[in-house]
Amino acid sequence: MADARVADQAALRRRVTSIRARHSEVLVVLAPPRTASTALARILWNHTRVGWYSHEPFEPTYYRDAPAEQAFDLLDGPAPIAELNPSRAGGPSGTDLVVKEMTFQVGDAFPLLAALATRPIVVLIRDPRLTIASRMKVLRRSGRPEIFPLRESGWEDLARQRAHLREHEIPHVVVDSSDLRRSPQTVAPPLLEQLGLTFTPELLTWQSSDATGLSAVSGADDPFYQRVLASKGIEPPAEPVPEIADFPEPLRAHVAACLAQYEELCRSVSG
Q1: At the top level of CATH, which class does the domain 2-270 belong to?
Q2: Residues 166-194: pLDDT tens digits?
Q3: Closest CA to 23 of 75, 74, 70
């Protein structure tokens, strides 16, 4: 059994190498849910260097207990940007691949995702009071229970994944999406520079996309991407920050712990 696991890991590492070889750059965005990660992806969709997009390829490994090989099947067949971004249809297509993934979905397979990146990994964060409230709101509107498994806030896995990045000295950059939304002309240029991309103001606006089926699990019925796909550009933050006491009692201790992690992370980034 041990030999089989080693063989599987070796095979997956070969697939990592193969994917990297097919693209000029592989840009990885890692985020807890509801951090405007798809909005950041939309900025990257606008860049002519970016030709391919893989949306949360590890999602089936979390929700369907699929093997990691299925995530790599999805990575081997990314979506052409021209099918997602109307303004890029018929235009020049680059060879860079953008991979966006949720922290809790990739989980312990994160070293494989990290190995894909050819540029610093973008770790996107946002006040967890906002992200958790937003997830609850979407679930409520779609008729699902608003109290979700705590792991799906994404913060527990993020702590382990940042430890891996630091331990192995893997280049990464932490960005607060509220800062990006509040001042995109200030935050986006240095971020794109680290990704090897030239910033132009036109990257911050786009046409609404009729793309469906971003999720490999929920398909066109997924309610989490309707707003960002219908958007026309980066929108400034306007959501009021709820108090911890505003959350249902089963979530309060978790929200408080996530908030402490977020505040510590903000201090370490600014310092």
Answers
A1: alpha beta
A2: 999 999 999 999 999 999 999 999 999 99
A3: 75
